[in-house]
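Entry:
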Amino acid sequence: MRPVTEQEIRASFVNCSKGDAKRLSVPRDLSERPWDDLDFLGWRDMSAPDRSYLVAERGDGLVGVALRFPSQQRGFLHRGMCTLCLTTHPGSGVSLMTARRAGKPGREGNSVGVYMCTDLACSLYVRGIKAPEPGGRFRESLSLDEQIARTHGKIAAFLDKVIGDARGAGAAGA
C-alpha cells in the first residue's frame, strides 16, 4: 500500500457521514507505518473500544470503512481464524467486525461482517513480520505472493459487500 495522509483517509470513508469521518480517530504514527508491507491500513479507535477502521486501495482510489465489533469477546480457550489472512488466534484475537453498508442500505440498518484479526495486523501476519501465538499460522503450499494476492482478494470482496450499489457515493452517500 502507498503511504496515505490523514486527509486522504478521512475522505475515503464510504459508510459514515462526512462529519463522522472528520471526528474519527486517525493514527498519529502514519509516517512510521510499514507501508510496503501493508495490504490495508487498519487501526482500533482507543477512545471507542468497539470501533475499528480499515482503509484499502482500490482501482478507483481509497476506500475506508468504519467497523464495529462486540465488546464482549469469547473465552481464551477458543481459537478463531481470520477470514482475510487465515491466521488463528486464541480467545479475543479474532473478532466479528461489522460494517454498515454504504448508501441507502446502510441508512436502512443493513451491515456485513467478516471475522478478522482484532489487532488488524493481517498483512504483517501473512508476511511473517508479526508472529501470532504458537500454531497461529498454518504452513501453506502457496507462495508468499499468492498468499498476499488471496488476502487482497478477500479484502476486495468484503469492500464490495460494503459498497454494494452505492459505488462512487463516498462518505456523503452514507
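Confidence is low (pLDDT under 50) at residues 167-174.
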